[in-house]
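Researcher: Next entry in the queue.
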Amino acid sequence: MAAALFNQIADPKKAHAISAGTNPGSAVHPVVLISMNEVDIDLSSVQPTLLTDDLAAGAAMLVTMGCGENCPIIPGVKREDWPLEDPKGKPLERVREIRNQTQSLVLALVEKEKWK
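Model: Structure for this entry, 116 residues:
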């Protein structure tokens, strides 16, 4: 959700987000698809990606979401950790709340880094 929201909001000439996880599922959860469609983002063709050290090393910033010691540590790369609840298995109403919280964090980051 965060990467898709980021890429919808940020100026693509200034920044682009790639989504990856330490334990990605085989597909985006159906309830997440529904909640993101509500804000005109179609994730139906997105394949979850494994977060590797190589992938992280190419980043200017890592935004983690509670991966703890499984998060890569890349010297010289800015990092923020967002305390977001995993939407997996949650009812649609809760996933909407998580989406909205994520959107607020994305907006704040884009504004702070002047990526709009």
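Model: The chain has one domain: 2-111.
Researcher: Noted, moving on.
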